[in-house]
TrEMBL record:
It is found in: Cytoplasmic vesicle, Phagosome membrane; Early endosome membrane. Pfam families: Exo_endo_phos2, INPP5B_PH, OCRL-like_ASH, RhoGAP. Residues 120-134 have a biased composition (Basic and acidic residues). Residues 109-171 are annotated as: Disordered. It comes from Xyrichtys novacula (Pearly razorfish). Its EC number is 3.1.3.36. It comes from the Eukaryota. Residues 675-852 form the Rho-GAP domain. Residues 141-151 have a biased composition (Low complexity). The lineage of its organism: Eukaryota, Metazoa, Chordata, Craniata, Vertebrata. This is phosphoinositide 5-phosphatase.
């Protein structure tokens, strides 16, 4: 239900007007946590409002909107704001008769802000500090720019101000917590500065400690000092990664775990004792955690910190496998640290390769400037990749492997390492380097000992835990495991990389900057930007559900000036393209004589498939490419979509006795219109009880995977899903291809893509209300349309058969209820945690023995 003005009441209103000011506030003890929340104080005359904003890009976007509104007010200072919109909120709030209107013109000058600062110093006896800085800045700036320059601490914010102030448009130096908003001229200056970086930067070595540890769901039982303080000198930066932090079902399904605090405390206590460190950022996805510390004296040079996660588990979403990452700028170098946990089992190296590719393509960081496209992992000067990569040793018997280890013939053994082989074949980690391995495999040990796995499976030892890097001016000081730690069935691994970091010489920077501005002033004239397009018509052949297709469009700047391009919205449309199409990058800058390649990608997912399957939509669009100060170019995009059972309704599929791709498009359109128009319309043939595609997948799993270990928990291969999809859509071959895990994932994707879930949206609330009563739950299911009711009962019966074999497949009622309830009972709006638990309770009634 939409929220309207009648649903909202305001207690305090702080208008953004000429006297508006925002000041960041923090206490001295909070300065050590670089990635902590941001506290800001909004002031007006005698009124003050303090807000705590969570660290990250969302808060910066909010602050940039505040700044944008404030900038708009400054453009017309003589017009007092009327704030007419507030009148709709004039009603009682929290027992008050009227809204308390805190109208306050809040200051727009540094002088005004300094006045607030002086007032606070006298009134705040606890010594709270206020800092003017960009929202992602780390520590206080120097009190005066002259002292900063004399000490060589020329910050990035100072340089951004210099770039902005060179523009012909007015520059406001009092934009507290604002984001850099660069125009065409500014982008050109930045581009030229980047090209001439060698003229004003120099390299300085800093040591980065990298550690990775799969803790097998254990709590810390011993000091981590032998691992984290193994170097003589304290490192400048720590990046410590964990996997399998918590193996409980609560952590997997609800992402809550007390072990985050336990392991963070253990790490903090084990950092090198000869230095003091500041926590910059902690990021976690289920059991994958990354903690980033920096020496306190370096903290002020850390900026642009962002953290992201991506799950690569079942359906590409579950976070039991995947990666967490942090990116940041250290002085003038951009660094990205990735901690990943890839697919398990010795034979699944292709799945590990796929996980790696997914992480690289899906993990993206927002930039400080929201107008800039997100940064991928590979768009950094230095990339550090750690984690349990799970690559094993192949083609050797376990006894021979242990014999080679006892003789320390690690080089011979390494030739059989799956990761080495995949890197040699350039299947993964192209351009990355791994140091020479001179330590014994780190997996698998009996917990609490140095004994190799003595369980029934007796796994072959393997170097699962690895550290790799990519970038220039990097030297590895050590690469080793730590046998002293016995908490887990893995051993932790560490490496210290001495990395050449680019530092800025302020004097050289200013000389370079001034020279660039002079050259641009000479070049700027009335020339109109223009580009040549490599093509203006693109055709995508045989577009299929969840299958990426891409075409490259090249833009060549044939004009006399640099240009800035952007795909813009057409009239009456909310986005620049249809939802199945993306352009990467959607905007950018091209230097004179330069070329930019844009990848136009078509990808049909569960949201866009229904309309394409029914013929309501076609693969057709026109893109408008706009040049700033130039003309618009029109690009035609077309293609033929291959209808799929994925994204087609249950009722439609029950009407189809032939594969969907054997049906004429007109027939599919008529069928959809008939179903949408009259549920009781006469049918020429009796419909199927359940969709034949659903029966094929469930029947295959019933016959082949009833005892399959980790079924519905381990992902399949994307290439095998494509074969399964084509088989279901074309009827060829007669039996489903691919592994059991791929068929299981295809079944989940089929249910997820249904336009109307198995339990209709109209009955969703009744399901929540009935969740505590088995008889009431059965009554709700009896109200479903017959085909939906048949599908629900068929799936529940199949899952009960799976549970009879839980000793082999390691499933239990909670796992199945969690996975399937979210697919069978989908909320028409966003589902909260309480609703999620109720849907699981509802579905569990149908999984207990004896359910009918």
């Amino acid at each position: 239900m939409a929220i309207t003005a009648d649903d909202v009441s305001l207690e305090d209103i702080v208008p953004i007007s000429l006297e508006f000011s925002v000041v960041e506030v923090s206490s001295p003890e909070e300065l050590a946590v670089v990635g902590g929340d941001t506290r800001v104080r909004v002031s007006y005359q005698e009124e003050e409002l303090e807000l705590r904003l969570p660290f990250g890009s969302h808060s910066r976007l909010f602050l940039s909107e505040v700044n944008r509104a404030w900038s708009d007010v400054c453009k017309s200072p003589t017009e007092p704001p009327k704030f007419e919109w507030i009148s709709k909120y004039h009603k009682a709030t929290r027992g008050q008769g009227v809204v308390k209107q805190t109208f306050a013109p809040l200051g727009n000058t540094i002088t005004k802000l300094n006045q607030h600062r002086k007032t606070d110093k006298t009134s705040d006896k606890k010594g709270s500090v206020e800092k003017e800085k960009a929202s992602n800045s780390v520590t206080q700036k120097s009190k005066a720019s002259s002292s900063a320059e004399s000490s060589g601490n020329f910050s990035r914010e100072d340089r951004d101000d210099l770039v902005r102030s060179s523009s012909h448009t007015p520059s406001n130096k009092a934009q507290i917590l604002a984001m850099p908003q660069f125009g065409l001229r500014d982008n050109l200056i930045k581009c030229e500065l980047l090209k001439n970086e060698d003229l004003y930067t120099f390299l300085e070595d800093f040591s980065i400690f990298l550690g990775t540890y799969n803790v097998n769901g254990q709590s810390p039982k011993e000091s981590l000092h032998p691992w984290l303080s193994c170097t003589l000198k304290p490192p400048d930066i720590y990046c410590v990664g964990f996997q399998e932090l918590d193996l409980s079902k609560e952590a997997f399904f609800f992402s809550d775990t007390p072990k985050e605090v336990e392991w963070m405390k253990a790490v903090t206590e084990a950092l090198h004792p000869e230095a003091k460190y500041a926590l910059v950022k902690l990021v976690r996805l289920v059991g994958i955690m990354l903690i980033f510390y920096v020496k306190k004296e370096h903290a002020e040079f850390i900026s642009d910190v962002e953290a992201e996660t991506v799950g690569t588990g079942i359906m590409g979403r579950m976070g039991n496998k995947g990666a967490v990452a942090v990116r940041f700028r250290f002085h003038n170098s951009d660094i990205c640290v990735v901690n990943s946990h890839l697919a398990a089992h010795i034979e699944e190296y292709e799945r590990r390769n796929q996980d790696y590719r997914d992480i690289c393509s899906r993990l993206q960081f927002r930039q400080l400037d929201p107008n800039q496209p997100p940064l991928t992992i590979m768009k950094h000067d230095v990339i550090l990749w750690i984690g349990d990569l799970n690559y094993r040793i192949s083609d050797l018997e376990v006894d021979y492997v242990k014999d080679l280890i006892s003789k320390k013939e690690f080089e011979t053994l390494h030739n059989y390492d799956q990761l080495k082989r995949q890197i040699d074949e350039e299947a993964v980690f192209v351009g990355f380097v791994e140091g020479e391995i001179e330590f014994q495999p780190t997996y698998k040990y009996d917990t609490g000992s140095d004994m190799w796995d003595t369980s029934e499976k007796c796994r072959v030892p393997a170097w699962c835990d690895r550290i790799l890097w990519r970038g220039k001016n990097i030297k590895q000081q050590h690469y080793q495991s730590h046998m002293a730690l016995k908490t887990s069935d893995h051993k932790p691994v560490s490496s210290v990389l001495v990395t050449g970091i680019k530092r800025v010489n302020p004097d050289d920077y200013k000389k370079t900057f001034e020279e660039i501005v002079r050259n641009i002033d000479k070049m700027e004239n009335e020339c109109i930007p223009s580009v040549t397009l490599s093509k203006q018509e693109l055709h995508f052949k045989d577009v299929k559900f969840m299958q990426h297709q891409a075409e490259t469009l090249s833009l060549f700047n044939d004009g006399q000036v640099p240009c800035q391009f952007e795909f813009i919205q057409k009239p009456n449309e909310h986005t620049y393209c249809k939802p199945w199409l993306t352009a990467n990058p959607p905007k950018g800058f091209i230097a004179q004589g330069g070329t930019v390649e844009i990848e136009l990608e078509v990808f049909v997912n569960r949201l866009t498939a229904p309309d394409l399957n029914s013929g309501k939509e076609q693969i057709e669009d026109i893109l408008v490419l706009h040049l700033e100060r130039g003309k618009d170019y029109f690009i035609s995009v077309a293609g033929n979509y291959m209808p799929s059972c994925f994204g087609t309704s249950i009722r439609s599929l029950c009407q189809l006795r032939e594969p969907i791709q054997d049906m004429p498009q007109e027939t599919l359109r008529e069928l959809q219109a008939e179903i949408s128009g009259d549920e009781n319309a006469a049918k020429t043939e009796k419909p199927l009880d359940i969709p034949k595609e659903l029966w094929m997948m469930v029947d295959h799993l019933f016959r082949n995977a009833i005892k399959q270990e980790d079924i519905f928990q381990q992902p399949g291969l994307r290439s095998e899903f494509a074969e399964i999809r084509d088989c279901l859509d074309t009827g060829m071959p007669d039996s489903l291809p691919g592994s059991n895990h791929s068929v299981a994932e295809a079944l989940l994707l089929f249910l997820d893509a249904l336009p109307e879930p198995v339990v209709s949206f109209s009955l969703y609330q009744q399901c929540l209300d009935s969740c505590s009563s088995a008889s009431m739950c059965e009554k709700v299911i009896s109200m479903l349309p017959q085909c939906h009711q048949n599908v629900f009962n068929y799936l529940a019966a199949f899952l009960r058969e799976l549970l009879k074999n839980s000793a082999s497949n390691r499933l239990d009622i909670n796992i199945l209820a969690t996975i399937f309830a979210s697919l069978l009972l989908r909320s028409p709006t966003k589902q909260d945690l309480a609703e999620k638990r109720k849907t699981q309770e509802f579905f569990q009634h149908f999984l207990t023995p004896g359910s009918s």
